[in-house]
Design brief:
The protein is of the alpha+beta class and 663 residues long. Among the domains are: 2-40 and 356-483, Neutral Protease Domain 2 (Neutral Protease, domain 2, Orthogonal Bundle); 488-582, Immunoglobulin-like, CATH 2.60.40.1910; 589-662, Macroglobulin (MG2) domain (Immunoglobulin-like). 19% of the residues lie in helices and 37% in strands. It binds zinc ion.
């Protein structure tokens, strides 16, 4: 799902180092778009224990609907199987605005007890494995007052290409019960579904799967009969009713050469077709691109497509996205929703706590589409830059993982900063962690898709796939980035001494009580006075870290640029210092006396165990001596050295510390 509006990111100076600037960012108009606020966050219905007694096999919706009202009538059949030893009570959810006319269990009329929005049929005594049909006849209208996206069903007039009344459903996260009887359990996908909708001509009805039949009925009525044979989660079932025209085209599935129907239901006006045609046509190339990246389009024996409605974003209904537009400035949104067919629909988050698996990947898919279209080295660094900056500038803390007590809070589940933007950056950072190796990256995505096809998954499941294929332990990564909060801020000071570049990097974090330290690798682009440059990675695993880098060819460092390829969610300041004394020193190594005449005592804290490599340099950066010691207290004889300034570095394990003294 992606509500849509554009954020103009003016504040791009914040991440910029003081000396250089990436020119390509200034001219790009493809800004990060984001999730709109979702009306009132209110408690949503989650599956009850009683509902866990059965496994949904099939939904058959047989409804009457019109384009100018949310009123519905008809019947819904839930075919299910008992999974408890005995199921005494059958329970489903349907909003209590609806009146239930009757319920038939295996064709036999039964009594229904209504408790709020839960409807219960008791006294069934069905043993385990019993297959049964519950057919629920109902009518009524859900009308909440029009909170954007919070409604399961909406109806309005769209005046953009004439006057078109349109009725559409949008059940994510827990709002399917606003329009049909349902078990709202992500983990219980129906094996298939059928949707029949009777309406008045010239309305047409969009839904999941294939349009099997359009049946003319008396009194100017018509019934659209849709059928889908793929497993489907409750929130991905939809209808949209309006006076549509059918703009159908075909994409080629790259793996098999099959032709895939792309069926677009847009309003029946030439202007509407003209305005939306370009992006609809471009969907062909998107299907090819994403099939190559993630594996064959998951619903290839049916279709993909779009149904227009007047919503402020779009929703990835299985096999057909409901969207507020397909105009050129919706291209990113259309790519986003198509990615959801893999990440969200084919593999669905097992709980709303793991919405990252849907939205983080769809958000990153917007970037992957640009990368496919324009190339990695193009100006589209701006997407990465903007998405990182939108998180940095937002200042919002909280984890990408949705805490349990927010599981029915749609504002939290669909939080733009955490779920979409930070979630998207996480996928990007995983790509860096595996060495920006595209073959491996797409192998991980495809393996995850294959392994959890038609099922649900958690972030742990994705992590396991990534670890299995890369051989990298992602435990720390997920602890700090997914379950942890905030991001690191680096205060980097540098100083050149001869051919030594000395850096002091101090890390603070934006949510220190949750995540006091991020163990990350960042890259610095070092630009020299002869305009040559190089990019060096530094692994930062301590609050305060010093690095010494050997510069070749006696070059002079002109400037240092933090994270030039936008791989890391972080902010930084970089300052050139005139002296090493400007460095913030930690207290783990003490040298004394300073200044000295004959000997220098070096005291290492107990935390610094192992071999210590001590290197001494003069002011020109010339290495005078290097010695190794295991001792916690070491005395260096400096009696024979000429007077002057020296600096001394200590390499202990992966850590480097630098000090300066005078003689
Ligand atoms: Zn989305």
């Amino acid at each position: 799902m992606k509500p849509k509006f554009f954020i103009f990111l003016l504040s791009f100076w914040l991440l910029m180092p003081i000396f250089s600037f990436a020119q390509d960012l200034q001219n790009d108009n493809n800004f990060v778009d984001a999730h709109k606020s979702i009306g009132n966050a209110s408690s949503r219905l989650l599956p009850t224990d009683v509902q866990n007694a059965y496994d949904v096999k099939w939904y058959f919706l047989n409804l009457n609907a019109e384009s100018n009202t949310v009123a519905l009538s008809g019947d819904v059949t839930i075919k299910a199987q008992v999974i408890y030893n005995v199921m005494d009570t059958f329970s489903f959810h349907l909003h209590n605005n609806y009146y239930i006319d009757s319920v038939l269990i295996n064709g036999v009329k039964t009594n229904v007890i209504t408790h709020e929005h839960e409807r219960l049929i008791t006294g069934l005594g069905m043993p385990k494995n019993t297959l049964f049909n519950a057919q629920i006849f109902y009518h009524g209208a859900y009308n909440s007052g029009g909170a954007f996206l919070a409604d399961g069903i909406s109806s309005t007039t769209d005046s953009r290409w004439g006057e078109f009344s349109v009725t559409w459903t949008l059940s994510e996260a827990n709002n399917a019960y606003h329009w049909f009887p349902v078990k709202q359990d992500l983990k219980d996908k129906a094996d298939s579904c059928r949707v029949f909708v009777t309406t008045t001509k010239p309305n047409m009805v969009a839904s999941n799967g294939l349009l099997k039949k359009v049946v003319d009925l008396p009194a100017n009525k018509v019934r659209y009969e849709w059928n889908s044979t793929y497993p489907i989660d409750y929130y991905l079932i939809f209808i949209a009713v309006a006076e549509y025209q059918d703009y159908s085209i075909y994409a080629t599935i790259p793996q098999t050469g099959e032709q895939l129907l792309i069926q677009n239901f847009i309003y029946n006006s030439p202007e509407c077709l003209a305005d939306n045609k370009k992006v609809m046509d471009e969907t062909k190339e998107m299907i090819k691109a994403f099939s190559e990246m993630f594996g064959k389009y998951p619903f290839s024996s049916e279709k993909y497509g779009h149904a227009l409605a007047k919503l402020g974003g779009a929703m990835e209904h299985q096999t057909m996205t409901t969207t507020g537009g397909l105009m050129s400035n919706w291209e990113s949104t259309i790519a986003h929703e198509l990615v959801h067919q893999w990440f969200g629909d084919n593999v669905t988050c097992a709980s709303w706590q793991h919405i990252w698996l849907n939205e983080g990947f769809a958000r990153y898919g917007e970037y992957l589409w640009r990368e496919y279209k324009f190339g990695k080295e193009s100006a589209f660094n701006s997407f990465k830059y903007n998405i990182i900056n939108s998180v940095v500038n937002n200042g919002k803390t909280g984890s990408v993982f949705v805490p349990l007590n927010d599981i029915d809070n749609e504002n939290r589940i669909f939080n733009t900063t955490l779920t979409y933007n930070k979630g998207g950056v996480l996928v990007h950072m995983i790509r860096y962690e595996i060495g920006d190796n595209d073959e491996l990256f797409y192998n991980i995505l495809q393996t995850y898709q294959n392994r959890f096809k038609d099922k649900v998954a958690t972030a742990e499941d994705f992590k396991n796939v990534a670890e299995e294929l890369s051989g990298i332990d992602f435990t720390t990564f997920f602890e700090q980035w997914y379950f942890g909060e905030g991001y690191p801020k680096f205060d980097i000071k540098w100083y050149q001494n001869g051919n030594q570049l000395v850096l002091n990097s101090a890390q603070t974090t934006t949510a220190p009580s949750a995540t006091p330290l991020f163990k990350v690798t960042y890259e610095l682009q070092i630009t020299y006075s002869d305009n040559s440059s190089e990019i060096i990675p530094f692994y930062h695993d301590e609050t305060n870290k010093q690095f010494v880098y050997n510069i070749s060819d006696n070059k002079t460092v002109n400037s240092i640029f933090f994270d030039p390829n936008y791989w890391l969610l972080a902010s930084s300041t970089i300052l050139k210092t005139n002296s090493i004394e400007d460095f913030v020193e930690d207290k783990s190594i003490t040298i004394y006396p300073n200044p000295t005449t004959t000997s220098l005592h070096i005291k290492f804290e107990n935390s610094l165990q192992g071999t210590k490599t001590i290197s001494l340099y003069d002011v020109t950066g010339k290495n005078i001596l290097t010695i190794n010691t295991q001792d916690d207290l070491y005395t260096l004889d400096v009696n024979s050295f000429p007077s002057g300034t020296y600096f001394i570095s200590f390499k202990i394990g992966k850590n480097v510390f630098v000090r300066k003294f005078n003689k």
